[in-house]
Specification:
This protein is elongated. It is of the alpha+beta class. It has one domain. Strands 2-1-6-7-8 form a five-stranded mixed beta sheet. Strands 4-3-5 form a three-stranded antiparallel beta sheet, with no helix packed on it. The protein has two helices and eight strands, in the order ααββββββββ. Strand 3 and strand 4 form a beta hairpin.
């Protein structure tokens, strides 16, 4: 009886069983961690894209309505970036270079420098992770029918699109935001 009272601790077999159960539990939970990391990266990417879109809308809001960056060429009812196709039946679309991507092509994270060069400026430079374009459309008083410039219009619908070009889901976490600029400056 005295011998049983002095026994304390665990046997090697009990320790091995406990470690096996712990390892199996840990292995079953690991996919949750990797999924959480991908979700967090995707959310971060979408948050940055939304910020870049809002930033461009705020910038365009500050320009006079006749400014070249928000203008629609005569004979067209929409200004779009280079490479954009028409937006539907009856669309008269004109390419406006101002609507093209205005974000840098390259960044150097160690210094914060950016470059608009077509090829990498050198070692330590990485492709900028986002592309931002926008379109401008003219609308009549109903705000349902597009009008062709230089006809009178009531509002310009500016639509900004930001698309990630790298990261966890490149191109899938695209954001599109629009703003109606009312009361043209005439």
């Amino acid at each position: 009886m005295r011998r049983l009272a002095r026994q304390r601790g665990m046997t090697v077999v009990e320790v091995l069983i406990a470690l096996t159960v712990f390892a199996l539990t840990l292995l079953s939970v690991m996919p949750l961690f990797s999924g959480a990391i991908r979700t967090a990266a995707s959310s971060y990417q979408l948050s940055n894209a939304n910020t870049l879109a809002r930033e461009k809308l705020e910038e365009l809001t500050g320009y006079p309505r006749g400014d070249a960056r928000t203008s629609v060429p005569d004979g067209a009812n929409a200004a779009v970036p280079t490479g954009t196709t028409t937006t539907g039946a009856g669309s008269i679309v004109a390419v406006n270079a101002a609507c093209n991507n205005d974000l840098p092509s390259w960044q150097e994270p160690s210094t914060g420098n950016v470059s608009f060069a077509t090829t990498s400026p050198g070692p330590g430079w990485y492709a900028y992770p986002y592309v931002r374009t926008y379109t401008v459309e003219l609308f009549d008083a109903t705000l349902a029918t597009r009008v062709t410039a230089p006809a009178s219009y009531v509002g310009k619908l500016v639509t900004v699109t930001v698309r990630p070009n790298q990261g966890p889901f490149p191109g899938l976490r695209q954001t599109t935001q629009s703003l109606l600029l009312r009361f043209p400056n005439e």
